[in-house]
Design brief:
This protein has 94 residues and is an all-alpha fold. It has a domain of 63 residues: Non-ribosomal Peptide Synthetase Peptidyl Carrier Protein, Chain A (Orthogonal Bundle), CATH 1.10.1200.10. The chain is built from four helices and no strands. Helix 1 packs across helix 2. The radius of gyration is 13 Å and the shape is globular. The relative contact order is 0.15.
Length: 94
């Protein structure tokens, strides 16, 4: 039984933003949900790969590379991380 799932989601969201910021040197305040990762934030493919690898390691998840290609916005990435976390716990996808 999970407690405080809303708080846990916010914690994960902040961790994802911190990891993106650390890799890209973009301030976390500029990393908003609707922002396009490549076009608005200027994240290149190497930074994307590095970010995904760090997310997998630090959050102990496996991100489906096929689904990672469909990520365009920060919200897309957050949804992918959440789905990956649920899959890692055996909860399946939503």
């Amino acid at each position: 039984m999970e407690i405080n799932t809303g708080a846990q989601k916010e914690d994960v969201k902040e961790r994802v933003k911190l990891i993106i910021s650390r890799v890209t040197k973009i301030p976390t305040s500029a990393i908003a949900g609707e922002k396009l990762i490549r076009d608005d934030l200027g994240v290149d493919s190497m930074q994307s790969i590095e970010t995904l690898a760090i997310l997998e390691k630090e959050l102990n998840i496996i991100i489906d590379p096929e689904k990672a290609f469909d990520v365009a916005t920060i919200n897309d990435l957050l949804n992918l991380v959440e789905t990956s976390m649920n899959s890692s716990r055996g909860e399946g996808t939503k």
